[in-house]
């Protein structure tokens, strides 16, 4: 049973660069947790604190039941795969992989046996006698993984493990990584800025922004029920459209500069109860906007600004007043810029966010 | 110099000079061994080898450790220390000659190997050059080693030193050549002829035996004295080229 617990973890660099800000996080045994966020949000620093490569400014880190704040990195029994793989270029692949065992003074026969097992598990017995300079990106990554798993770590830390691979391999490796983690049953924390990667691999995702954890949940939770403006805008591709609106109670409608949108009564009630003012942000996923060539009841007219046919779908940029919003249309949808499109919002799937607190109301 | 040793007395003085003598006098090289008596050539070579090798090793160890700390650790005043070290490069070597002599006299190191080995072992240039190289070694490579159980000194020994080979070779060669060829300092601190370095011994050839009769023998001795440098350069050349030109760590 290896759980990892972060309690009020804070890391300040220099005098006032707060990289990690009061982070509380519980990672369950055998769980694959992904820390997701844009670059500079503190996710890597959090990982390095767990690894022991950084000393937290305040807060506690527990691995299992042990408080590890003062335990040196080599005694924490964690393994880490670095973004650049960080192989040792002057050592052969087999020496790279066997190094953690050698440092622990494991007997030679045992090292040999484990080296063979690990190499077979990662399908790389043919690479053992090469030096890292002769490896491709994918091979180097397997070596880095091998070095990490050879001594059966309690916790497995991955820092952007797929960032240095080419696009095709990345999609393949994220499944492989997930499978490997399931087979080994190791508690894993992975850092990435790529939401598709996060959603493909994670049991749970923790979204980080400016040193804080904004929301933790399974992928569909984050997508369907974002708790604040940042998560709403960060998760999903293309990104959610945000439209500044004022809620008018008498009309039960959201008024923006381009349109007035009547909303169901229950939504109106929610806004009235939870919003700090009548200023709200309407969040619409491009997938929840449907396009029509003719006027429909409640539809809003918009000008087609640009079109990106992607094959499996088409992304249409629409001009609403001064705003440009994105909508996803079926691949068969034909239009040219300058045309008028009639758009309908899926009212069951709209998001309303308080403009002042940036917290989601619906 | 190499061919002059193979010439006869007449050929050396001929005008225009003959570059390749028609009858090379190979025996000159053999005779050269017995030519120098006080000290004998082999003794001078031995002295020079002991001094140069230990001086270079000591310097490499000292400057790589200093460079490692300056390149990879942050502590209060680290850049002031670097500033101070770099500023040493601006002081002409000659100004330190007399104070250093007095210091050696005070230590009682005059007429010992120590006077030749220790003073040059601090070299601002070497520290600076190695620090610049070590800075290019990615921190992640070192972090990985720490995480997988390497101590801080193990890090230096197992990671930094092998990865800095090109810089070590460059610095090593510069100092090897400099130490081997140095004449002024040994002349000041060594009076005991048994401790004469090759350069001092060769300098000694000038007084009594510098008649034309012996010119080819002097040339042979000088050639023999240069041989170790040539061998050393060939041995380290693979790293040298990288050390002087690239001066940065290669990825993966």
How would the blueprint of this fold be written?
The complex is a heterodimer of chains A (362) and B (252).
Chain A: E1 4-13, E2 17-27, E3 32-36, H1 43-51, E4 58-63, E5 66-67, E6 78-81, H2 93-103, H3 108-121, H4 137-149, E7 155-159, H5 167-184, E8 187-192, H6 195-201, E9 204-209, E10 212-217, H7 219-224, H8 229-234, E11 241-248, E12 253-255, E13 260-262, H9 265-274, E14 279-284, E15 289-292, E16 300-309, E17 314-320, E18 323-329, E19 340-345, E20 351-354
Parallel strand pairs in A: 3-8, 3-9, 6-7, 7-8
Antiparallel strand pairs in A: 1-2, 1-4, 4-5, 9-10, 11-12, 11-14, 12-13, 14-20, 15-19, 16-17, 16-19, 17-18
Chain B: H1 9-13, H2 27-35, H3 41-72, H4 78-88, H5 97-107, H6 114-117, H7 124-135, H8 139-147, H9 152-163, H10 165-181, H11 184-189, H12 198-204, H13 215-246
Helix pairs in contact in B: 2-13, 3-7, 3-10, 3-12, 4-7, 8-9, 10-13
Overall mean confidence score, pLDDT of chain A: 91
What is the second-level CATH architecture of chain B? Answer: Orthogonal Bundle
Give the termini distance of chain A in whole angstroms: 37 Å
Stretches of chain A where pLDDT is under 50 for at least 5 consecutive residues are none
In which order are the strands of the major sheet of chain A placed?
6-7-8-3-9-10
